């Protein structure tokens, strides 16, 4: 499965009322893995979330147009530090609190939200986001870390 043009537009516009797992699946799905693997990688994602994306035309079957083209990324990812530099305290606070629910289990999520609450300013939130990115990459892999970075980018 890959994102359709409508899916790419939805990522930008956030016009549809998608569940958090469905939106996270939409952010990360790219045709490089089987659908079942994506469903297991996205915390809380079910077949119903995939069906919601399919019904809305946000994802479609992967139609390879050549191996070389499939290996190239759509666009270069902006470094996380650069993304964070453009975010204010409120935006980072909200994004990190939401992402704690997506990427961490109940006990760890509680600790992570407390870490967010302890941050006295935007610089501390930015440092926390960088630590979380590395922890998510180590615990869940690059795909989950990419989804985390995409969520922080808004």
Short description:
This protein is an all-alpha fold and 154 residues long. It is 68% helix and 3% strand.
For the largest beta-sheet, the strand count, sense and barrel status come to:
2 strands, antiparallel
Category by helix and strand content: mainly alpha
- Which range best describes the helical content: under 10%, 10-25%, 25-40%, 40-55%, 55-70% or over 70%? 55-70%
What's the average pLDDT? 85
| Count of helical stretches | 10
Per DSSP, what share of the residues sits in E-state strands of 2 or more residues? under 5%
The H-and-E topology, N to C, reads as: EHHHHEHHHHHH
Uncertain stretches: 66-73
The number of E-state strands comes to 2
Strand order of the largest sheet: 1-2
What is Rg?
A: 16 Å
* Overall number of structural domains: 2
Distance between the termini: 23 Å
The rough form would be described as globular
């Amino acid at each position: 499965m890959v994102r359709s043009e409508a899916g790419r537009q939805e990522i930008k516009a956030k016009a549809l009322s998608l569940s958090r797992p469905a939106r996270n699946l939409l952010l990360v799905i790219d045709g490089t893995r089987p659908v079942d693997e994506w469903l297991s990688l996205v915390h809380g994602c079910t077949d119903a979330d995939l069906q919601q994306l399919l019904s809305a035309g946000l994802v479609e079957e992967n139609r390879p147009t050549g191996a070389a083209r499939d290996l190239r990324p759509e666009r270069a990812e902006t470094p996380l530090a650069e993304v964070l530099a453009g975010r204010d305290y409120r935006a980072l606070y909200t994004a990190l609190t939401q992402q704690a629910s997506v990427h961490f289990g109940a006990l760890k999520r509680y600790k992570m939200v407390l870490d967010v609450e302890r941050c006295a300013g935007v610089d501390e939130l930015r440092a926390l986001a960088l630590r979380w990115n590395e922890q998510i990459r180590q615990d869940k892999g690059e795909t989950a870390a990419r989804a985390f970075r995409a969520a922080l980018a808004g």
